[in-house]
């Protein structure tokens, strides 16, 4: 049983890494801010750290809030069958989407499969519809939030940097502020009650002080780096060139946020199976073992390395033209939204948010700069993922139950 658990957990984690890396590194590669090889290396490091250090928060949400445990108290083995069906169904759909280079929401696939299992087992009464409603609202508003933040950030570049006679000198003054914000937000989200997996739990005040200090250090480094840089004849190109550094930082930040949020999709159902097989009973919550977080982290890393390139083009090139400064605006806003959702325990769709953020950057240049046909195809894939994953899971659940 343990070997089977490890295999299916690794399979779904591999799928998530393979499909979702395009959301995190697609704009960086397409804008020329970083090579594909280096993008993969950064994605591996920061996805792993995000999943390991912060990932436990959303894991408990996926594990206990979608399906009503009370229906399975007298037959916990049925719940185990269902969790296996969830992983297999979601994995099959994500694998197919990855092969088709289609950036779907892996969060949608998992939750759709969970819904399919609950409905197949005991009908609509077995689903926590109130929580499902909250998640649905987050899916609607999170890409809007991502789009708004990226729209604002790029307009700061547009009106306070590009629309001036000496844009590079303006950039030298504004860029360190963004570096401070990235360092501050990422550190605070990580260390403020976010390191319980490592038995560390800082209060808000010490976490705030440390986060400000890290942000100030990062800002000082950026000021020192930019201080002696002089512009060339094309200052706009200089801004884009130095924006590559911000772009790479924000891409790493987004990988961290994605790892924190989406590891839950891989190990949430596995955590439920382990709890049941170990105790023989269902429980609404339980500690997620460190080795399970490591398994989910490792699986996503392998997915990035082996198949991550397949969906990168859609996010990076096909929605709108991406430059380093636009890419920074999109990835910073997407990462902030995803990381906030992770700390609140809400399983957001990183695909929704990333597409929303890239669209927001495009809207800052006008609706004509957006490929509406590509956006339409992406929206259709979002619409189909939940019902298809639910139907597939319901069928697989009945097969497992029958043969078991």
- Elements, N to C (H/E): HHHHHHHHHHHHHH
Biggest sheet details: none
Give the percentage of residues in beta strands. under 5%
Number of strands: 0
The DSSP helix count reads 14
Task: Please state the structural category.
Answer: mainly alpha
Stretches with pLDDT under 50, minimum 5 residues: none
Give the overall silhouette: globular
Number of domains: 1
Q: Any idea what the radius of gyration is?
A: 21 Å
Separation of termini?
14 Å
What's a quick, concise take on this entry?
The chain has 404 residues and is mainly α. 79% of the residues lie in helices and 0% in strands. Helix 6 (129-162) runs antiparallel to helix 12.
Written description of the protein model:
The chain is an all-alpha fold and 404 residues long. It has one domain. Helices cover 79% and strands 0% of the residues. The chain has 14 helices and no strands. The longest helix is centred in the middle third of the chain and has 45 residues, at 235-279. The radius of gyration is 21 Å and the shape is globular.
SSE layout and pairings?
Elements: H1 2-30, H2 36-54, H3 56-64, H4 76-99, H5 106-122, H6 129-162, H7 167-191, H8 204-227, H9 235-279, H10 290-307, H11 312-318, H12 324-344, H13 350-363, H14 372-403
């Amino acid at each position: 049983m343990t070997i089977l658990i490890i295999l299916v957990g690794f399979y779904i984690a591999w799928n998530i890494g393979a499909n979702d890396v395009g959301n995190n590194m697609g704009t960086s590669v397409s804008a020329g801010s970083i090579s594909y090889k280096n993008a993969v290396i950064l994605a591996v490091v920061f996805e792993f750290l995000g999943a390991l250090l912060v990932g436990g928060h959303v894991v408990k949400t996926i594990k206990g809030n979608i399906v009503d445990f009370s229906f399975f108290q007298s037959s916990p083995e049925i719940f185990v069958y269902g969790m296996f069906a969830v992983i297999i169904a979601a994995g099959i759909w994500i694998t197919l989407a990855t092969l088709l280079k289609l950036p779907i929401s892996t969060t949608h696939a998992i939750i759709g499969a969970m819904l399919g299992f609950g409905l197949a087992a005991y009908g609509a009464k077995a689903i926590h519809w109130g929580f499902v409603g909250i998640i649905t609202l987050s899916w609607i508003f999170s890409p809007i939030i991502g789009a708004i933040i990226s729209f604002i950030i790029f307009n700061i570049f547009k009106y306070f940097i590009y629309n001036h006679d000496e844009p590079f000198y303006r950039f030298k003054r504004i860029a360190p502020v963004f570096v401070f914000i990235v360092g501050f937000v990422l550190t605070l989200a990580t260390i403020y009650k976010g390191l319980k997996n490592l038995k560390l739990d800082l209060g808000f005040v010490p976490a705030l002080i440390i986060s400000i200090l890290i942000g100030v250090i990062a800002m000082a480094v950026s000021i020192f780096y930019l201080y002696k840089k002089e512009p060339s004849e094309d200052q706009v190109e200089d801004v884009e060139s130095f924006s590559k550094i911000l772009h790479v930082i924000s891409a790493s930040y987004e990988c961290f946020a994605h790892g924190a949020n989406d590891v839950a999709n891989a190990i949430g159902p596995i955590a439920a199976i382990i709890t049941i097989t170990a105790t023989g009973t269902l429980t609404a919550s339980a500690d997620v073992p460190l080795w399970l977080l490591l398994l989910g982290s490792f699986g996503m890393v392998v997915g990035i390395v082996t198949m991550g390139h397949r969906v990168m083009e859609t996010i990076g090139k096909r929605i709108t033209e991406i430059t380093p400064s636009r890419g920074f605006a999109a990835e910073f806003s997407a990462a902030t939204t995803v990381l906030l959702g992770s700390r609140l325990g809400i399983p957001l769709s990183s695909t929704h948010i990333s597409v929303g953020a890239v669209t927001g950057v495009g809207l800052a240049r006008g609706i004509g700069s957006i490929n509406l046909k590509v956006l339409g195809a992406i929206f259709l894939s979002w619409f189909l993922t939940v019902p298809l994953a639910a139907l597939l899971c319901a069928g697989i659940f009945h097969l497992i139950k029958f043969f078991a």
